[in-house]
Amino acid sequence: MKYMPLQASTFGEDWDLVWNFVLWSSIISCIILIGGMIYFIFRYQRKTDKDKTAYITHNTFAEFLWSFIPLVVFMGIAAWGWEVYKDMRTFPTDALEVNVTAQKWAWNMTYSNGRTLTGKLVVPVGKPVTILLTSKDVIHSFFIPSFRVKQDAVPGRRSKLWFQATREGNYHLFCTEYCGMNHSGMLGTVSVVAQADFDAFMAENPNAEVSPIELGKQLYQQQACIGCHTTDGKPLVGPSFQGIFGKSVKIKGGGTVTADENYIRESILNPAAKIVEGFPENQMPVYQGALNEDQITALIEFIKAQK
Ligand SMILES: [Cu+2]
Q1: Poorest-confidence range of 13-27, 57-71, 227-241?
Q2: Considering the chain, what percentage of its residues have pLDDT values greater than 70?
Q3: How many angstroms separate the CA atoms of 218 and 212, rounded?
Q4: Domain limits of the chain?
């Protein structure tokens, strides 16, 4: 359909099918309903003063049909939509990861080797890409219409989305959460390129010495994390970072938590929130206010790299 942006990701076809079904079934229902109303206005118009309104009770069969048929249609749409949504929220493990930080009014992209770009995202065609989102100030929303993906970037939280581009070219990136004066100018370009061109892009890297992992390593030493957290699997005062990312850990006081980006972030800023079982409380200093989002990203990437 021409009224939709070009389909350029693996989600495009499935997403558009659901969308078109909802759109066209709504248009058809609207025509039947409003058309029927208009027809009835003329067909059953009172012609003379003697016309009496018929005595209408109810019709169980008709009432059952107009309840049951929409119920089946709506449940079908819900199940179908869920199937598509599930694909979008099931993250591939072999994806290229890009950290994206939103701020008034720009998108900043950071690649694993430290390469940074503002307002431009370069990705290889045919490869899954995971975008790790956060914001420095207010809520923004990361939207690539041609890929049919959208996700809020929320200050103080890590959110993510993934896609796999299916054709090379340049696509629009919009902010779709009103974020202040220059919101409408908070635009970007997504460049989908061949793998060889992407490799060349990654190789010409002016920020090689400040990759997030490298910066995280420096912070790990400077901020004295190293005094309590090892990277060789042996716990000291706190858990070792080795192999911890993505693991489910037991929490003091019951329950478990997955050691993902959000948990690590919380544990750095507010260590007392969720203490891992078997470790003492009140040992770690609070880093709230001492580290900025880029530094937290760097520490998360450093911890992720301790496999
Ligand atoms: Cu914005």
Answers
A1: 227-241
A2: 99
A3: 10
A4: 96-207, 211-304
- Measure 23 CA to ligand 1 centroid, in angstroms: 28
Q: What is the pTM of this model?
A: 0.76
Q: Name the strand (E) or helix (H) holding 171.
A: strand 169-175
Domain 211-304: top CATH class: mainly alpha
One-letter amino acid at 166 equals: T
Q: What is the pLDDT of residues 202-231, one digit of tens each?
A: 888 776 667 888 888 888 888 878 888 988
Could you give the C-alpha distances from 113 to 129, 202, 264, 289, in angstroms and in order?
A: 15, 8, 21, 26
State the distance from the centre of ligand 1 to the C-alpha of 101, rounded, in angstroms: 11
pLDDT greater than 60 at residue 1: no
**107 C-alpha vs ligand 1 centroid, how far in Å?**
9
Give distance in angstroms: CA of 174 to centre of ligand 1: 8
Please work out, in degrees rounded to the nearest 5, the angle formed at the alpha carbon of residue 286 by the alpha carbons of 285 and 292.
125
Please tell me the distance between residue 266's alpha carbon and the centre of ligand 1 in angstroms. Answer: 24
Output the CA 170–ligand 1 centroid distance in Å: 20
Tokens of 100: 């994206």
Q: Which CATH architecture has domain 96-207?
A: Sandwich (2.60)
Whole-number Å distance, alpha carbon 10 to ligand 1 midpoint, is 26
Distance 131 CA to ligand 1 centre (A): 16
